[in-house]
């Protein structure tokens, strides 16, 4: 079966997951997380992408960002992956691959799914039973988005900023989103779209993508009869360097926990 092509669009939020090869760990010590965040910052700066949320798990990574130009997405992933693998192979005197060969990606309709996707990403350590509160895990964007801690990597999305007028009220409103469980249906929708490299949104979003790309793109549960694809007219590296001061990266509290997460 041919691989589904990824869809990237200018200024449309994109959820990316990259897993360790054979789901093996890709982080082994605290220094590794710091190194990854450093190279992530470099890749964001070089490509002009803006990051809204992230989670660094033991054997995979979640990123939610908006690219100014769609073609910058593979450049970001390749640059970040290559630099981090260089670091790991040098630090641990190893050779070979670290990541699965293909990353998963899903375009996110901001109005309907952006905040749910942010919750999904930042609740990963909770679903994995690594912590009970997302604030207790070091390596996500929750402390920036929910607690107001400085994180130079994060650029708030306009929908996040629209939660409330003042920063304090905005943080409280965002934390309030985490008091209720993320519905299983939302988790299933996000996972299905990621696994199939398909967009996530409503019918208007799918129609917009169809007009821009010339084909229908929508995640479909396995086992459901497939409809006929309808074509529509289309409209119209850098190497390793010196790590920055750790104080400029994501702050953290509790001791490092090494444990694989389910998603």
Structure description:
It is a single chain. The model is unreliable at 225-242 and 250-257 (pLDDT under 50). It is built from 9 helices and 4 strands; from the N terminus they run βαββαβααααααα. By secondary structure, the chain is an alpha+beta fold. Strands 2-3-1-4 form a 4-stranded antiparallel sheet, sandwiched between helices. The longest helix has 20 residues, at 72-91. A hairpin with a 3-residue loop joins β2 and β3. It has one domain (14-248): Alpha-Beta Plaits, CATH 3.30.70.
- How many extended strands? 4
CATH class: Alpha Beta
Query: How much helix, percentage-wise, in residues?
Result: 25-40%
**Envelope shape:** globular
Low-pLDDT ranges: 225-242, 250-257
Q: Strand share of the residues?
A: 5-15%
Task: Briefly summarize what is shown.
The chain has about 260 residues and is α+β, with helices and mostly antiparallel strands. Helix content is about 40%, strand content about 10%. It has 9 helices and 4 strands; from the N terminus they run E-H-E-E-H-E-H-H-H-H-H-H-H.
Feature tags:
single chain; alpha+beta; Alpha-Beta Plaits; globular
Q: What layout of secondary structure does this protein have?
A:
Elements: E1 14-19, H1 30-47, E2 50-56, E3 60-66, H2 72-91, E4 104-107, H3 110-122, H4 124-127, H5 142-147, H6 158-161, H7 167-177, H8 184-195, H9 203-213
Helix pairs in contact: 1-2
């Amino acid at each position: 079966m041919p691989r589904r092509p990824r869809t990237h669009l200018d200024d449309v939020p994109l959820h990316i997951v990259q897993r360790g090869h054979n789901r093996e760990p890709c982080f082994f010590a605290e220094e590794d997380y710091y190194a990854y965040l450093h190279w992530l910052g470099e890749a964001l700066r070089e490509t002009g992408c803006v990051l809204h949320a992230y989670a660094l798990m033991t054997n995979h990574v979640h990123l939610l960002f908006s690219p100014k130009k769609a073609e910058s997405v593979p450049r970001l992933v390749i640059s970040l992956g290559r630099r981090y693998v260089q670091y790991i192979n040098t630090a641990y005197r190893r050779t070979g691959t670290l990541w699965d060969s293909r990353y998963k990606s899903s375009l996110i309709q901001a109005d309907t799914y952006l905040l749910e996707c942010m919750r999904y990403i930042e609740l990963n350590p909770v679903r994995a039973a690594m912590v009970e509160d997302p604030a207790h895990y070091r390596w996500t964007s929750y402390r920036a988005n929910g607690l107001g801690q400085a994180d130079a990597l994060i650029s708030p999305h306009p929908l996040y900023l629209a939660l409330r007028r003042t920063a304090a009220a905005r943080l409280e409103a965002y934390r309030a989103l985490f008091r209720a469980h993320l519905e299983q249906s939302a988790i299933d929708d996000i996972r299905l779209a990621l696994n199939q490299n398909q967009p996530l949104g409503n019918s208007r979003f799918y129609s917009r993508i169809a007009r821009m790309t010339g084909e229908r793109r929508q995640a479909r549960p396995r086992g459901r009869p497939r409809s006929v694809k309808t074509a529509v007219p289309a409209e119209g590296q850098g190497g390793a360097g010196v790590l920055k001061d750790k104080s400029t990266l994501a702050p953290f509290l509790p001791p490092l926990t090494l444990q694989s997460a389910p998603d």
